[in-house]
């Protein structure tokens, strides 16, 4: 179960799907002697860490949503299977992935839909929160490189940030979408949502050095590709 806010409404479901689901996968891997696991963790494990950019060696014991806590639990449980059964594991901490086919519940998709219909956008907080938006093609490239790393190396257990290392504020994100759509945004300001972190910002030096990860897509270019996809869908 992806998504921060719904996890606050339904923490038991998140626990069942994310933790028990992962446990089932690990047990099946053991049974069928599958050695390599590349899995989605999340930048949300960093919670409201004050120090930026976020590095993989920071302490992440301070989750602020059930979703984030399940991802941290996954990182711990996969480590157990690595130690006990020698599985190779790469836990990839994704930073707000966007691009064509993005989940409809995520902000870029929702805002594009509302702005194209001339409707108001609900903006939680004052617009200064920021996210390290990472384009889908760059993430896919990082996933493929992680799979290759897992296959070519011994004794692998690695937690790796896959971000863009270039945070964008909420206000800026709205402006870029509006400009790409050629509209003037109508903003309805609302209070910050519980569970939402203030910012995410990845240090990606580990991914660069270890797997040769190099995100290439600027936010303007990524949004253009998203908007093109969105408009083609709705022709
Ligand atoms: N999108 C992001 O910005 C982001 C950021 C950090 C981490 N992640 C993680 O990346 C992964 C993919 O996220 P996404 O944004 O592509 O979400 P998504 O909703 O597009 O994909 C999730 C997939 O999981 C499947 N699924 C859900 N419950 C299942 C179950 N019980 N059994 C089998 N399949 C089930 C869904 O059908 C769906 O195909 C998730 O683990 C998410 O937590 C995503």
Written overview of the protein:
- The protein has 235 residues and is an alpha/beta fold.
- The chain has a single domain (5-233), classed as 3-Layer(aba) Sandwich (Rossmann fold).
- It has 8 helices and 9 strands.
- The chain has helices at 5-9, 11-31, 66-85, 107-116, 136-152, 170-181, 205-211, 219-233; strands at residues 36-42, 88-94, 97-98, 120-124, 130-131, 134-135, 157-162, 168-169, 186-190.
- The strands form 4 sheets. It has a 3-stranded parallel beta sheet, sandwiched between helices. The chain has a two-stranded parallel ribbon with strand order 3-6. It has a two-stranded parallel ribbon with strand order 4-9.
- Helix 4 crosses helix 6 and helix 4 crosses helix 8 (219-233).
- The longest helix has 21 residues, at 11-31.
- The model has no long low-confidence stretch (mean pLDDT 97).
- The chain binds nicotinamide-adenine-dinucleotide.
- Residues 2, 17, 21, 40, 42, 94, 96-97, 103 line the site of nicotinamide-adenine-dinucleotide.
